[in-house]
Design goal:
CATH architecture of the largest domain in chain A: 3-Layer(aba) Sandwich
Catalytic activity (chain A): indole-3-pyruvate + 2 oxidized [2Fe-2S]-[ferredoxin] + CoA = (indol-3-yl)acetyl-CoA + 2 reduced [2Fe-2S]-[ferredoxin] + CO2 + H(+)
Order of helices and strands of chain B: EHEEEHEHHEHHHH
Distance between the termini of chain B: 26 Å
Oligomer: heterodimer
Structural class of chain A: alpha/beta
Distance between the termini of chain A: 38 Å
Low-confidence stretches of chain A: 584-589
Strand content of chain B: 15-25%
Strand order of the largest sheet of chain B: 2-3-1-4-5-6
Protein name (chain A): Indolepyruvate oxidoreductase subunit IorA
Function (chain A): Catalyzes the ferredoxin-dependent oxidative decarboxylation of arylpyruvates.
Largest sheet of chain A: 7 strands, mixed
Strand order of the largest sheet of chain A: 3-2-4-5-7-6-12
Helix content of chain B: 25-40%
CATH class of the largest domain in chain A: Alpha Beta
CATH superfamily of the largest domain in chain A: Thiamin diphosphate (ThDP)-binding fold, Pyr/PP domains
Helix content of chain A: 25-40%
Structural class of chain B: alpha/beta
Bound molecules: iron/sulfur cluster
CATH topology of the largest domain in chain A: Rossmann fold
Number of strands of chain B: 6
CATH class of chain B: Alpha Beta
CATH architecture of chain B: 3-Layer(aba) Sandwich
Mean pLDDT of chain A: 95
CATH superfamily of chain B: Pyruvate-ferredoxin oxidoreductase, PFOR, domain III
Number of helices of chain A: 18
Largest sheet of chain B: 6 strands, mixed
Keywords (chain A): 4Fe-4S, Electron transport, Iron, Iron-sulfur, Metal-binding, Oxidoreductase, Pyruvate, Transport
Low-confidence stretches of chain B: none
EC number (chain A): 1.2.7.8
Largest interface: A-B, 64 and 59 residues
Radius of gyration of chain B: 16 Å
Shape of chain A: globular
Chain lengths: 589, 191
């Protein structure tokens, strides 16, 4: 039966159909739904790891134990897992192992644009780059076969428009899941220098074998049409190029590392103009040029930044873009993402914004606190960096004789991911920052995934729930207190105490994510008589609020379809114009 | 056959993705190739959302380029204006009249333009505005706006309306099937 599924869902389905046994990963757009779909299908064991390195390491263990294994992550997650990856390339695998890395050209939801194809070159391992959902499905099967045949981990790379685009998929026959013997082979799996030296030679030999395989494999196919224009491409870029020039000739690469040199030479010799279409880095182009082959159209015409589309390909080859050149309407108010109505982060940030402190931020919903009108975050680097960066800032402040204490804001999932080690360092090195852990008991930004604090596994069954306060205490932090950021007065007082008390100070806000836990309280109402139109409540930055009526001072109104009843806006009103109905609760349900 | 391009715009949380799914599944049920694409992640938190559905004998890119959409369906007036440039000359536009404030407006940093409807009509004279929220409420649930919007364009699609109805029934079986069907038909009645 044919079905319409996303690339991520196709990978999950194929993982199950290809005899997969163990999957792990950390949520990150655009990779997240892969593991969620494995869990939803329900036939293969899977789990969320606290971070990508742990996810990959666990998958390595699974492979050693004889089970086909999958580790999923987004491109920046590969940086975290890279330490394990670089040695895994030496040890090789027992049962097949696939590392899925989802890139995000165009940065729809990421802090940088990074091309994971660099990692395949760097790690000297094969990489597959599917061009649609069907190929995503097929390449998982092919990936396991390559992994086992060549004793290597395989990277399966996707991009946002593969991971999230839906297309038609037809399932292939199932491979029964079987678990082989646990591998005991010291020289192969214990990377002491003496064994590692031998393995490096093996890695280089393996790469040559893979090169020969790339020449003959149908994963790299030639579509000979009009020879005037020949295009070498892969992944989603193939679809854009095909859309732009359906009549051109193509060398469509599925195995994108190592490259099939002879196939490229043959193709190049048969076409008039050779064009290389790739998103982000010039990985193919540089290698093709290094082979001494002339590339007529490449990165000189296609940007290294952002996504490729059919029009970019057309224009690069000197053809006109789509007939109708249209321009977007200007001067429209932007509609950036913002905290959900009722989200606990809103109250916290309105206070941080009022206190004008330096806030070292992190990756998660709370990153949105950097946007106006809250504008209360001043740096955000990568998962877990909030605490360690605040520590560095505090040390230099001290050296420079500055007295202000920086604040680090981090979520629970991020804290478990890689915030713990930063806080451990701050404790050990006698740091001086205020750390606020927004413990909403979920991984909010990626859609509410489970984590070691949420009390559930990925399958939804009950799990051990880490107690944040005890964990922080164990790291050696004496000053750790719980706060309720819906109560602005109490929260402000706690933050002030934290800023005045020397040394590391941790506040834990334990309000659950209202989206994930479907929290709803009775609506807040505005009295038109009492409202003066002073706009103080708008500081809450809630989309339920709006100005009604014209004139100098329009009054505030609340959209009942949107309000979540949190009452943060009402605490900004000095005129008692907002009534918060009693009852309801922000407890999880 | 050239691909038939549909663009669906709205605000995170309005059910744009479910509407896209209905259209994509309907195309597959009509034995056509289809690609559907939207951007997740950050866009979910009340931000501006856009989704593409491309239908045809063979569809390559999942992306609809500006100036090439056969239909633009917008769940909110301002979002209709924001993505109007996706419409090809002579393309059809249907939008929901009910406004939702962007966070920038709610925070008092920007104002919701008062002339959105006029600007839409100026650019696209036969644009259709419907009160999808009202139709959805009449069908039994304000959240069914997405089904009203699908219904409102059903007749202009290269797909039989019965196929779309079958898909909605299948997808919402046991989860508000009656409401969704009423919303779909209510939407169709606005055409
Ligand atoms: S998803 Fe949860 S944490 Fe994120 S903005 Fe919404 S309520 Fe807040
Ligand atoms: S803070 Fe009170 S008085 Fe001022 S605009 Fe808001 S509701 Fe009206």
């Amino acid at each position: 039966m044919k079905k319409i599924i996303s690339g991520n869902e196709a990978i999950a389905l194929s993982f199950e159909d290809s005899g997969g046994v163990f999957a792990s990963g950390y949520p990150g757009t655009p990779s997240t739904e892969t593991l969620e779909e494995v869990a939803r299908l329900g036939n293969v064991y899977c789990e969320w790891a606290p971070n990508e390195k742990v996810g990959l390491e666990s998958a390595i263990g699974a492979s050693l134990a004889g089970g086909r294994a999958l580790a999923t992550m987004k491109h920046v997650g590969v940086n975290v897992a890279a330490d394990a990856l670089m040695t895994l390339t030496y040890t090789g695998v027992n049962a097949g192992l696939i590392l899925m890395a989802a890139d995000d050209p165009g940065m729809h939801s990421s802090q940088n644009e990074q091309d994971s194809r660099n990692y395949a070159k760097f790690a000297k391992i094969p990489m597959l780059d599917p061009a649609d959902s069907q190929e995503a499905y097929d390449y998982v099967r092919a990936g396991f076969e390559i992994s086992e045949r060549f004793d290597t981990p395989v990277m399966l790379r996707t991009t946002t428009r593969i991971s999230h685009a839906k297309g038609v998929v037809e399932q292939k026959g199932k491979v029964a899941a079987k678990v082989g013997e646990l591998a005991k082979d010291v020289p192969k799996y214990v990377m002491l220098p003496n064994f590692g030296k031998i393995k490096h030679v093996a890695v280089e030999e393996r790469l040559l074998k893979l090169q020969a395989f790339a020449e003959e494999s149908p994963l790299n196919r030639v579509e000979m049409n009009d020879p005037e224009l020949g295009i070498i491409t892969s992944g989603i870029s193939y679809q854009h190029a095909k859309e732009a020039f359906p009549q051109a000739s193509f060398l469509k690469l599925g195995l994108v590392h190592p490259l099939p040199e002879q196939k490229i030479r043959d193709f190049a010799s048969k076409v008039g103009r050779l064009m290389v279409v790739e998103e982000m880095d010039a990985i193919f182009e540089e290698q093709i040029r290094a082979m001494g082959i002339r590339v007529d159209i490449g990165k000189d015409r296609i940007s290294l930044c952002g996504e490729v589309c059919a029009d970019i390909v057309r224009e690069a080859a000197g053809a006109p873009a789509t007939s109708a050149k249209t321009t977007p309407a200007g001067d429209l108010p932007l509609r950036p993402p913002t905290f959900c109505p009722g989200c606990a982060h809103r109250g916290l940030y309105s206070i941080l914004s009022k206190l004008k402190v330096f806030v070292s931020g992190d990756i998660g919903c709370y990153t949105l606190g950097a946007l106006p009108p809250l504008s209360a975050m001043h740096t955000c680097i990568c998962m877990g960096a909030s605490i360690s960066a605040a520590h560095g800032i505090a040390k230099v402040n001290e050296i420079a004789g500055r007295t202000e204490k920086p604040v680090a804001v981090i979520g629970d999932s991020t804290f478990f991911h890689s915030g713990i080690t930063g806080l451990l360092s701050m404790s050990y090195n006698a740091g001086n920052a205020l750390v606020i852990i927004m413990d909403n008991r979920t991984t909010g930004m990626t859609g509410g995934q489970e984590n070691p604090g949420s009390g559930r596994h990925i399958q939804g069954n009950p799990a051990k729930e880490v107690d944040m306060v005890s964990l922080v205490k164990v790291l050696g932090i004496e000053n750790v207190f719980e706060i309720n950021s819906y109560d602005l007065k109490e929260t402000e007082a706690a933050i002030r105490r934290g800023l005045e008390t020397p040394g590391p100070y941790v506040l834990v806000d334990k309000n659950p994510c209202v989206l994930r836990y479907r929290v709803k309280k009775p609506l807040v109402q505005v009295s038109a008589e009492k409202c003066t139109g002073c706009r103080a409540c708008l500081k809450a930055s809630c989309v339920a609020l709006g100005l009604k009526g014209s004139g100098e001072k329009p009054k505030v109104s609340i959209d009942p379809n949107i309000c979540n009843g949190c009452g943060v806006c009402s605490q900004h009103c000095k005129f008692d114009a907002m009534t918060v109905a009693s009852g309801g609760s922000h407890e999880s349900i | 056959m050239k691909a038939f391009n549909i663009v669906i715009a709205g605000v995170g949380g309005q059910g744009v993705l479910m509407a896209s799914k209905v259209l994509a599944e309907s195309a597959l049920a009509s034995s056509m190739d289809v690609k559907q694409n939207e951007v997740h992640g950050m866009a979910q938190r009340g931000g501006s959302v856009i989704s593409f559905v491309r239908i045809g004998a063979k569809v390559h890119s999942p992306v609809v380029l500006p100036g090439t959409a056969d239909i633009l369906i917008s769940f909110e007036p301002l979002e209709a204006l924001r993505y109007l440039h996706y419409l090809k000359p002579g393309g059809k536009l249907v939008y929901n009249k009910a406004c939702i404030n962007p966070s920038t407006v709610a925070a008092g940093l920007a104002t919701y333009p008062g002339d959105v409807a006029q600007r839409i009509t100026a650019a696209c004279p036969d644009a259709r505005a419907i009160d999808a929220l009202q139709v959805a409420k009449e069908a039994g649930n304000a959240k069914a706006v997405n089904m009203v919007m699908v219904g409102s364009v059903m007749k202009g699609l290269p797909i039989d309306s019965e196929v779309v109805e079958g898909v909605v029934r299948e997808i919402s079986r046991g989860k508000g099937e009656d409401v969704n069907m009423a919303a779909l038909r209510g939407g169709a009645a606005t055409a």
